[in-house]
Amino acid sequence: MKYFYGAGKRGPYFEGWQLRHQAPTGEVLSIFPVLRIDKAGNTSAVIRVESRDGIWNVSCPGGSLQASEGLFQIWVQGSLFNRKGVWLDLRTRDMTLCGELRYGPFTPLKSELMGPLGALTLLPVRRGVISMGHRLEGVLMLNGRRIDFTGGTGFIETVRGTALPAASLWSQSIWREERSNSLLVSVERLPTLAGPRVNCLCAVLYGGHEYRLASYRGAVVDRWTAEGTLIRQGPLRLSLEPAYPGNHVPVRYQLWEGERLLFDHLDPYAGYRCTLEDTPGGA
User: Fold this and answer.
1) pLDDT band for position 248 (cuts 50, 70, 90)
2) What is the DSSP letter of 246?
3) What pLDDT, on the 0 to 100 scale, is given for residue 203?
4) Dist CA 129 CA 115 (whole Å)
5) pTM of the model
6) Of 45, 31, 35, 37, which is closest to residue 3 (Cα–Cα)?
7) Alpha carbons 269 and 220: distance in angstroms, whole number
8) Do 95 and 28 meet the contact criterion of CB atoms below 8 Å apart?
9) Are 109 and 2 in contact, with CB atoms under 8 Å apart?
10) What is the distance between the alpha carbons of residues 161 and 241, in angstroms, rounded to a whole number?
11) What's the confidence (pLDDT) of residue 91?
12) Contact 66, 74 (CB under 8 A)
């Protein structure tokens, strides 16, 4: 797997990685190192931090972000992200995030998330999964608050491209029954040279099996609003139904194979986002 595509790129271009960390308590902290190149070829970098306490963007010079193509390893202005973990020293006027987390073995997908679409140059956004789940150990200090992630689970994805989707939905969840289970749902309406295109990419690891619902496998998005989404592919149906009782939006996931319910999972800490044209929503 190639981990960095930005070397020698001309703008407009962006490439980033989401490292999502879920503590045993359910608390989630996401970190996004991102490289940006504008039309004039000027580079910049940002590290976005999202938690229950807020969202912060740490601006960095473009040259401070160094990434490896053959290894998952990213340096950004004193912070390191790689296969073994993260070492953070982020300080701004409004936020400090320091400490280190160690990662267990990654859980990759059996094949690239994009499948044959990865070879199409007309797509403005490309996504990939580095790990659907891995163990966490360590403590981070966020604005003086101690968050212990030991015994928790991590997730890492990558995204790159030349333009943002016109509309998008993204949700990811990890939970444990007899074993760890994980899912990722991404639905995007993309502007392409051939006109607008809805691209669906879903990966589910459940009970030791991997399920893939994707446009290139015939998946169809039957329903897609901020109130819920239904995706069909042959006998498989995957539904997401967010509720709105508080600050943390719980999301109910159901995966059906014909008339057989494979799982019915309610995640109170899910990262459900649904953004439609002129109608931002989600959580």
Assistant:
1) low
2) S
3) 97
4) 12
5) 0.92
6) 35
7) 26
8) no
9) no
10) 29
11) 93
12) yes
Amino acid symbol at 265:
H
DSSP label of 14: E
In this structure, the chain runs to a length of 283
φ, ψ for residue 191, nearest 5 deg = -80, 120
Quick: pLDDT tens for 101-122: 999 999 999 999 999 887 776 7
CA angle 199, 202, 206 (to 5 degrees): 170
CA 182 to CA 89: how far, in whole Å? 29
Cβ-based neighbour number of residue 53 at 10 Å: 14
- Determine whether 195 is exposed, middle or buried from the number of CB atoms within 10 Å of its CB (0-12, 13-18, 19+): exposed
Q: Output the CA–CA distances (angstroms, integers) from residue 279 to 42, 97, 221, in the order listed.
A: 31, 32, 19
Asked if 116 and 123 touch (Cβ cutoff 8 Å), the reply is no
Tokens matching residue 270: 């899910």
Residue whose pair of structure tokens reads 């340096």 in the numeric block: 75
Q: Could you give the residue ranges of the DSSP H alpha helices within the chain? A: none
Tokens representing 200? 């669906």
Q: Cα angle at 157 between 52 and 22, to 5 degrees?
A: 35
Residue 260's DSSP bridge partners are: 257
pLDDT tens digits, residue range 183-202? 999 999 877 667 778 889 99
What is the rounded distance in angstroms from the CA atom of residue 246 to the CA atom of residue 227? 15
* Neighbouring C-beta atoms of residue 68, cutoff 10 Å: 14
Q: What letter represents residue 213's amino acid?
A: L
Angstrom distance (rounded) from CA 273 to CA 30: 14
User: Residue 110, by phi and psi: left (phi above 0), alpha (psi -120 to 50) or beta?
Assistant: alpha
Output the six-digit token pair for 99: 């400490």
How far is residue 16 from each of residues 19, 126, 151, 180, measured CA to CA in Å?
10, 11, 26, 26
